[in-house]
Amino acid sequence: MRVLIVVHGHPPTHIGGAELRAARTARGLAVAGHASSVLCVESVAVPDRRYVYDDCHEQGVLVRRISFRFEDGMNGFRQSYANPQIGAALAQFIEEWHPDIIHLFSGYLMSGSVIQTARGYDLPIVVSLTDYWWLCHRINLVRTDGSRCDGPAPLDCTRCYQEMYRRFRLPAKASRPLADWFWSLVPYLPLLGQSLGLLEQAERLRTTLGTLHLADRLISPSQALAQAYVEHGIDPAQITVWRQGVSLRACPLRKPASTLRFGYLGQIKSHKGVHTLIDAWGQLKGERLRSLAIYGSDQGAEAYGARLRRMAQKFGGVSWHDPISHDAVWAALAELDVLVIPSRWRENSPNVILEAQAMGVVVVGSDLGGIAELVEHGRNGLRFSPDDAADLAVQFQRLLDEPDLVAQLRAHPLPFYSFDEELGQLEGLYRELVAAEMLSL
Description:
The chain has about 450 residues and is an alpha/beta fold. It is built from 18 helices and 14 strands. The chain has 3 domains: about 1-130 and about 215-245 and about 420-440, Rossmann fold (3-Layer(aba) Sandwich); about 155-200, no CATH class; about 260-410, 3-Layer(aba) Sandwich (Rossmann fold), CATH 3.40.50.2000. Strands 3-4-2-1-5-6-7-8 form an 8-stranded mixed beta sheet, sandwiched between helices. A 6-stranded parallel beta sheet has the order 11-10-9-12-13-14, sandwiched between helices. The two termini are about 20 Å apart.
């Protein structure tokens, strides 16, 4: 088969979870004897309005990196969910490379134009639901004030979008009741709503969900994520829930220590709840030796990162480290006893939780979304109430005060399957969809 993977970024310049999974899938397909290629975004900061691209071969995979730029204002917002440049770039690649099937990882940056273009060429298309992008322009269903959102509504989405900008964010921060009153008037003032983008937010949701209906299959790594899409109109029969596989080839042995070693691996951002972690760390009591290693970058949230470092200095035992590559995750986990996932948003199915359990590292995570599916409280890890530093401190204190608890939790990892098994599932799905498309022609 000839499989074209489409994703919003590709290593080494883009190393998020979806990017790494897409790259791993493309390489796995090439090793398995298929022709595989990747279409990805390299930059959205080029001066020219027309897209440009660069091709290279990496580990048997043809990678085409495209660069373009968004227009300003609402035109740019429209391009974020329906981008003619992406559609044109994909059409050009299809005509040159002739894939049998397309697999889109998320819609971020790539937009729904990928699905529409694929259907125009009568190509089957699989979409991996890696986040909430199809429902939320901020991807994570977290509002600009940090509160969690239950799902899209045009007025709420309009407010959330506008409060990303200072002219609305600062007044809302100064007086939330006054801001609430202002936004309550918007539905009754059509011209004001139009100027703020109310109709555009409604159009985004219609377009993204309507486009998803055109996909042949949606893959969700968690029941929680799948349910969120079902609640907003996606047919459950269209979604297959498959947990991602774990690659154990580079998995080292854990290194024991007398100190109980806690760790965090991820972005240093508010929606990741790192402040809750630091706050909980400062509430711990007792003489047992403990340490907390934080790996990650605060790029784009430097003031937040600086505040956390000042907080941590008061408590001691906290070390800060640069973000690590995916290949280095195993080495970092080998030096931890407890991994903390304090996220404030409904994570999908974090790779690092599966990797930690494969390594025998106990996970303490927020009782939210896909995290709650992977961490069974009191069996293979511990959960705490989201945003509740006191509750997180209680879970930490249990691990410190109950010497046998870590070993007990470590002994019951959640069953997981390998990346080779995941790839085999994908190959079977691709063959099924390609055969069905051939019969329909």
